[in-house]
Amino acid sequence: MARLSIEEVSVDFGGIHALRDVTFELESGSIVGLIGPNGAGKSTLLNCVSGITRPSRGRVRLDEKVLSELPPASVAGCGIGRVFQHPELVADLSVQENLLIACHRSLGYGLVSELLKLPNMWKAERDAARRVEEVLGRLGLSDSAELTIRNLPYGHRKLVDLGRALLMDIRFLLLDEPIAGLNDAEVAKLRDLLLRLREELGLGILVVEHNMPFVSRLCDRLVVLDLGRLIANGAPADVLSAPKVMASYLGEDA
Amino acid sequence: MSAATDMERTQRQATSVGAGALLGLCLAAACAAPFVLNGYGLYVLTLTGVFALVALGLNLLTGYAGQISLCHAAFFGVGAYATAILTQSAGVPYLLSLLVAALFTACVGAVVAVPAMRLKSLYLAIATLGFGVVLQKIIFEWRGLTNGGGGLALSPPVIAGYELRAMGLYYLTLAVVTLGIWGAWNVSRGRTGRALLIIKESEIAAGALGIPAARYKVIAFAISAFYAAVAGGLFAYLVRYIHPENFSVGLSIAFLSMVVIGGLGTIGGSIVGAAFYVIVPELLRGIKDAPGLVFGLLLVVVMVLMPQGLWGLVRRLGRRS
Known about the structure:
The complex is a heterodimer of chains A (254) and B (321). By secondary structure, chain A is an alpha/beta fold. Chain A has eleven helices and ten strands. Chain A has helices at residues 42-49, 72-77, 95-101, 104-107, 111-116, 119-139, 154-166, 184-201, 212-218, 236-241, 243-250, and strands at residues 3-13, 16-27, 31-35, 57-62, 65-66, 80-83, 172-176, 204-208, 221-226, 229-234. The A-B interface holds A 50-52, 71-74, 76-77, 81-82, 84, 88-90, 92-94, 97, 100-102, 104-105, 107, 109, 111, 114-117, 121, 125, 143-148, 151, 164-165, 168 and B 1-2, 4-5, 8-9, 12, 183, 186-187, 190-192, 194-195, 197-198, 201-202, 204-213, 219, 223, 265.
């Protein structure tokens, strides 16, 4: 059972306090929704966890390991997957090839093996291709494996981005607005998929999302940020009915 | 969906079969060329091979990793001088000199990559431009080693007791270019090539996938400098007189043009781009007074009509037939 801890994290951009003393935890197997109005600091927090932004104060830990001192690639190597709001895929490559990019660390062979196509490269590539096939099956994209990203609908692109994270042997998954741009059927499918991932792989999932019905049905717990501060942390029903949260969403006068 | 997939698969298979056939045909023609061409024709074709080698390396850096370099003429020059000095002054066998000089230049390339970790696009272009000028200046000023502005005159290299004249050097270049294509093909389709492509797309996305962008930029610069240096070592013995002025920024721009005209991010584009750049001006020599003008206009026309380069056109034609 792994634990991802955000401990008194603050981020200052010049004079702006994007995050102030934010503390909460996420265990493997739990799904936590990170909500709050625009500019609350949700994306900044995801960036802190994935190593893109370094906290001004406080730290992020995965069990005993301090992540907030590591560069993004090393954080990813520790088992933290990140899916962006807009999938950044290589448009000219196929779905399969895009997924192979995420096998980078597990492939492990060196430049010389690659230049000369040594046997260890073949073996590693075959293993990676097999894992890609598995993930494609899991995502329901087996039929699209050889399509180029250019010819893929937006919803499927988002799935490919999620698939890349799954190929990295992650323990925690950070999702930034996963359902933006998806239709109702795709949203339902994604929710089922995330629940299955939690069930089968024991993933801990931190999801930033504006769609309240989606987060309240998906998440075990909600964390609410407002102007960089954590103002609520608890079960969805309790959090969404808390006066502080309603005020932050509807304005102080409500 | 599955019909579309089948179509793409068939198309891809057809393309790769077509590319294989084209490659075989080109190789056969290249092997037979010395028996048809005169001495000057052979020189032009060898030079095409030399530039194609630079373009292959530069395309990995610019086309795949998205890093612009304006110091490849300097890498080319460092390779040329290092090979010449090792072979001529230190008595190292020519082929070994080529390898050692290329490894040395790859290290120089890795050093140049340090600012690339922080800089992007035009800013990187200007920084590499500076490096190019500095390297050229070092070659010029280090007279004890390079004979400075006097240049270096070279006698034909000897491989296993056989003196490498025009024909020998042509076949050596052909062999090296073939190896270079194979290596570039392998790298571009393997772990490194995929890492470079995602770095070009987004360094943040690369980081999230566990790919350290900084390290891969250094690797891309080093591989690219290696290719340029091997080409430089061949070039030195093709012209048999090298001078610091050979390796100016103008040549760096020419290399970059070859890659863009040929097609960014393609292996075939590197070859076609180099061929276009070397051979077309030769064909235009007949036009009195105006070869430069016509060539310049041709560059404009190619870029306007074929934004994906000449190789993009070859591919489109291949798909249609």
